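User: I'm curious whether this sequence folds into something compact or stays loose and floppy. Could you predict its structure so I can see for myself?
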Amino acid sequence: MSRVERLARFNESELYTVTCQELSEGRANLEVLEAVIAGGGKIIQLREKDWDKRELYKLAIEFRKRTLKSNMLLIINDHVDIALATNADGVHLGQEDLPIPAARRIAPDLILGASTHSLEEALMAQKEGADYVNIGPIFPTKTKAKATRFLGPSAIREISPHLKVPFTVMGGINMENIAQVLNAGARRVALVTGVTRANDIMKRVQQLRQIILSFKKTPIPTAKNSLSRIGASLTPLKSLGEPH
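Assistant: Here's the prediction. I'll summarize afterward.
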């Protein structure tokens, strides 16, 4: 599949599930994947920060088999080599991972996503050729153990109008607060435990997709102010509370 075809399918997505076996209530990643497929998910990111590469590669092969059968996009977190070796659709890169231009040189047909935590980082990722950027963390989350600040939904209003590429949002998003990010203009929402810790993952995926799709019919808000308000919205994390 070409990059253009992959991007077209990415643009049709709404719920972006991200794995974390440790936070899946005792369920294996493959069990989570099957439930997301059954719920109609269109994209999934295989993200296991602490697994060794050989173990992750073996799982990625199985993920690729099953996502191909279900016509689902597969994104690999961090590892361009694993994404290429398993014929995944893309790779998601953090601020400390391989730079976007270097990844593009060796993986011209992959979707390249970039984690960003400010307007400056989002604009730089876009300039360097990212196909989409993620804005976050929006709310407190234990999947980002080193995070000391969260952006809040207002950052979506401030950053997104400056982007020409698609964006996702992530970080502590769940059924209780998803409306806040959607009201701020998000239309592709990434969740970890908001999906993986649900009692019924298939049902949760269906519910979340329905909520996001209902907002896709409404106009996206535009920002009235600029970067100065983003700084005011950066609040220290006093308590991480329940992981999301």
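Summary: Residues 3-236 form a domain with the TIM Barrel fold (CATH 3.20.20.70). DSSP finds eleven helices and ten strands in the chain.
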